[in-house]
C-alpha cells in the first residue's frame, strides 16, 4: 500500500475499518473540526471510533462525552485541561489496529509534531498546512517519516479536498512531470474577488467570507498570500520542486499598519482594506480587466502569488463562489493544461476530505 492516500482506496474503506478497528483523535473542533464531528455521526463513519477530541484549551476522552452531539459546544466550557499525552494514550489503549490523529487546527506547533507522530506509528490526517507548506526542513522530515511507512492524509490541505494532490501523484507514478502550475488556490480570496465589483466595501465581503467559514482563523493568513503560498509549496514539493518558503514571491493585501496588530484589532479595522482595493479594482475595470489572486509556478521553479489584473476572457475570470482552479501543464498535458476546478473552501467539503483520508487508511 502506498504511503500517501489515493481516492480509490476510500471505496472499500467502510468494511475494512469494521474488520480492523480504527480509532481517531481529533485536534481542533472549530469550523472544520466541528463539521467533521457532524460527519462522524453519519453512517459513512460508522466504523470509526472517536477516542479523544480537543480544542486549544480543553479536551475530552470519555466515551460518553465524546458521543454527545453537543461535544463541540460543550468543549468550549467543559472538559479536561489540554494534554497531548493523554490524547495519544487514548489511541494507544483503544486496542484499534489503525490509530489516526486528525489535525483540524492551524497551529504550527502541532503541525511540527506530524513527523514524530508518524514515526511513532500513528497515521496523520490533516487540514493544517503548516508543516508540508512550511519551512523546507519540516517538509523533509515529513518525507522521511512517510518513507518509513507512516501514512499522511493531506487531501484537505490543497483545494479543500479537490483531487489535486492525488492527481499529481498519479501522473508522477506514470512518469509524467509537472512543468508549470497556475491558478486560484484560495477559496476565500476567490469568493471575495469573484464578487467584488466596487459597489460594496471589500471589508463587508470579507466579514461574510469569515462568517461562512472560508477564511483562516486569522483572515490575514489569506489576505497576506501566506495560505496560498503554502498551497503552492505543497503542490510544488509534491511535484518534486524542493522550494523553500523564501523562493515564493508573495504579494500581501494587508496594509502595513495592520500587519502586526492582534487579530481582534485587525478585525475591528477591516475598513482600512477598502480604499486601496477599490482603487485597484477601478483601475482594472477601466482597462476592461478584473482582479484575481493568482498563484504561478513556472518551468524554472520561479513561484509567485499575488493580485493580478486579468482580462475578462481569462479562465480565472470565470469562477464562481469559492471556486479554486488548478491548471497543471505537464510533459503529457502540454498543449492544453489539465484543469481541476471546484469549491476550494468551506467546512463541509473540507471535513469530507478529512473523512475520506481516514477511511482510505483502513
Ligand atoms: N475553513 C476552510 O474552508 C478550510 C480550512 N482548512 C484548514 O483547516 C484548519 C482549521 O481551520 P478552521 O476550522 O477554519 O479554523 P478554526 O479557527 O475554526 O478552528 C481551529 C480549531 O483548532 C483549535 N486549536 C488550536 N490550537 C490547538 C491545539 N494546540 N490543540 C487542539 N486544538 C487546537 C482551536 O481551538 C479551534 O477549535 C486550518 O489549518 C485551515 O487552514 C483547510 C481547508 C479549508
Ligand atoms: N482559508 C482557506 C481555506 C482552505 O484552505 C482558503 O480560503 O482557501
From TrEMBL:
Name of the molecule in the record: Homoserine dehydrogenase
Residues in coiled coil: none
Cofactor(s) required, per the database record: a metal cation
InterPro entries associated with the record: Asp/hSer_DH_NAD-bd, Bifunc_Aspkin/hSer_DH, HDH_cat, HDH_CS, HDH_short, NAD(P)-bd_dom_sf
Binding site for NADPH: 105, 129
Molecular-function annotations in GO: homoserine dehydrogenase activity; NADP binding
Residues holding L-homoserine: 216
Enzyme superclass (EC): oxidoreductase
Domain Aspartate/homoserine dehydrogenase NAD-binding intervals: 28-150
Amino acid at each position: 500500500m502506498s504511503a500517501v492516500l489515493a481516492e480509490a482506496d476510500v471505496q472499500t474503506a467502510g468494511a475494512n475499518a469494521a474488520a480492523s478497528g480504527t480509532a481517531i483523535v481529533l485536534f481542533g473542533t472549530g469550523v472544520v473540526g466541528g463539521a467533521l464531528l457532524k460527519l462522524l455521526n453519519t453512517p459513512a463513519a460508522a466504523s470509526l471510533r472517536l477516542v479523544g477530541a480537543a480544542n486549544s484549551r480543553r479536551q475530552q476522552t470519555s466515551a460518553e462525552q465524546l458521543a454527545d452531539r453537543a461535544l463541540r459546544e460543550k468543549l468550549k466550557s467543559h472538559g479536561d485541561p489540554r494534554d497531548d499525552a493523554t490524547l495519544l494514550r487514548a489511541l494507544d489503549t483503544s486496542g484499534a489496529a489503525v490509530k489516526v490523529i486528525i489535525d483540524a487546527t492551524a497551529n504550527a506547533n502541532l503541525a511540527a509534531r506530524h513527523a514524530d507522530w508518524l514515526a511513532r506509528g500513528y497515521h496523520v490526517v490533516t487540514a493544517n498546512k503548516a508543516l508540508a507548506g512550511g519551512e523546507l526542513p519540516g517538509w523533509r522530515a515529513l518525507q522521511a517519516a512517510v518513507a518509513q511507512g507512516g501514512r499522511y492524509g493531506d487531501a484537505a490541505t490543497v483545494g479543500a479536498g479537490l483531487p489535486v494532490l492525488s492527481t499529481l501523484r498519479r501522473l508522477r507514478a506514470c512518469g509524467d512531470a509537472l512543468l508549470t502550475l497556475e491558478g486560484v488556490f484560495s477559496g476565500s480570496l476567490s469568493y471575495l474577488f469573484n464578487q467584488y465589483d466596487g459597489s460594496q466595501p471589500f471589508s463587508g465581503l470579507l466579514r461574510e467570507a469569515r462568517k461562512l467559514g472560508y477564511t483562516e482563523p486569522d483572515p490575514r493568513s489569506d489576505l497576506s498570500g501566506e495560505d496560498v503560498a503554502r498551497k503552492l509549496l505543497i503542490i510544488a514539493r509534491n511535484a518534486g520542486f524542493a522550494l523553500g518558503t523564501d523562493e515564493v514571491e508573495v504579494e500581501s493585501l494587508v496594509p502595513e499598519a495592520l500587519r502586526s496588530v492582534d487579530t481582534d484589532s485587525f478585525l475591528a479595522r477591516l475598513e482600512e482594506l477598502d480604499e486601496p482595493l477599490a482603487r485597484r479594482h477601478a483601475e482594472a475595470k477601466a482597462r476592461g480587466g478584473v482582479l484575481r489572486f493568482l498563484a504561478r509556478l513556472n518551468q524554472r521553479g520561479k513561484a509567485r502569488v499575488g493580485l493580478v489584473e486579468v482580462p475578462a476572457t481569462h479562465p480565472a475570470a470565470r469562477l464562481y463562489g469559492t471556486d479554486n482552479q488548478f491548471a497543471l501543464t505537464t510533459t503529457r498535458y502540454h498543449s492544453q493544461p489539465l484543469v481541476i476546478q471546484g469549491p476550494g473552501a468551506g467546512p463541509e467539503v473540507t471535513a469530507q476530505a478529512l473523512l475520506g483520508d481516514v477511511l482510505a487508511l483502513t
